[in-house]
Design a protein that fits this description.
The complex is a heterodimer. Chain A has ten helices and no strands. Chain A is mainly α. Chain A folds into two domains: 104 residues, no CATH class; 82 residues, Orthogonal Bundle (Arc Repressor Mutant, subunit A). Classes of the chains: A mainly alpha, B mainly alpha.
Chain lengths: 223, 73
């Protein structure tokens, strides 16, 4: 993946003055007293609205409904308020304050849905369900005679090319469809670390399939 | 050209991909650019590459974009 310094180079820092509303939020939240309490209540109200909308947006796919979904949203909003007030010094004015604050509500909903799946897993995290892979990869049953060797080669590459940890993560995420955020909790890791493991596994597996003549060489940069 | 585009797409990695931490660090900035119709992808190609490849971060992006566009009201 792209190293940190390249990302920093391409990131323009634009903290040259805040819009009036963002400046108001920062000023009032840094105070003590009733104005701050009123601002906190307003922030909480905003983040509850965002968290509820986000939980509803994701709810059908993760099978969370009704009071459980509302509880999740309220908890996410409360935790997001804590995250925002604890990080006020990190707001650099590159966006509106409310956009930055809403980001934490979205993150909290993400994390709580991951935790929900962890408590109510639909599949065991370590089972190896290779039978589901053709469907996941859009391999049509009618062409099985063509892709049978390809899939066998992929399976060999998973066994031979990946480290035990990469294999564990690949099996959970790709074969079993375990949400990445759930695996983060299961393995006591971070989303970035798990993603990097899957990223490296994908690169190794593609190289193995290209070397075996199953996939073409990568001759074009993805746009 | 490959006969198995879905597999190829899944295994293909983009070297510009910045990873989850950096993409999420700048998500609010990226989302405001997208919401404003600005050229977010050109300005932050590493974040765009990451959001295309990472399902959970892509979900967070969609959620924050919906919030900024007022869909939470």
């Amino acid at each position: 993946m792209m190293p940190v310094n390249r990302m920093v180079d391409e990131t323009p820092v634009t903290a040259t003055g805040l819009d009036p509303e963002s400046a108001w939020w920062l000023r009032v939240l840094a105070e003590t007293g009733p104005r701050r309490e009123a601002a906190l209540a307003r922030l909480h109200e905003l983040l509850v609205r965002v968290a509820r909308a986000e939980a509803r947006r994701r709810g059908p796919r993760v099978r969370i409904t009704g009071p459980e979904l509302d509880d999740l949203a309220y908890q996410a909003a409360a935790d997001a308020v804590m995250a925002v007030t604890g990080r006020l010094g990190q707001f650099r004015g590159e966006s509106r304050f409310t956009t930055w604050a809403c980001k934490f509500a979205i993150f909290e909903v993400s994390a709580k849905i991951g935790r929900h799946f962890w408590r109510h897993p639909g599949v065991p995290l370590d089972a190896e369900d290779w039978d589901r892979l053709p469907d996941r990869l859009g391999l049509e049953p009618a062409r099985e005679s063509e892709w049978r060797d390809l899939l066998a080669a992929l399976r060999r590459a998973v066994d031979d090319e990946l480290t035990p940890r990469q294999r564990e993560v690949f099996v959970a995420v790709v074969l079993n469809g375990v949400p990445l955020d759930t695996l983060v909790i299961e393995l006591g890791s971070s989303r970035n670390a798990i993603y990097k493991m899957v990223f490296d596994a994908r690169r190794k597996l593609r190289a193995a399939l290209v070397a075996g003549g199953y996939l073409g060489h990568d001759t074009q940069e993805r746009s | 050209m490959n006969d198995w585009p879905a597999l190829d797409d899944f295994l293909r990695t983009d070297p510009r991909d910045v990873g989850c931490d950096q993409a999420m660090e700048m998500l609010h900035v990226y989302v405001e650019l997208v919401a404003a119709g600005a050229l977010a992808e050109q300005q932050y190609p590493g974040i765009a590459a990451h959001l295309r490849a990472c399902g959970p971060c892509g979900e967070d992006f969609e959620g924050l974009l919906a919030a900024v566009r007022g869909e939470a009201d």
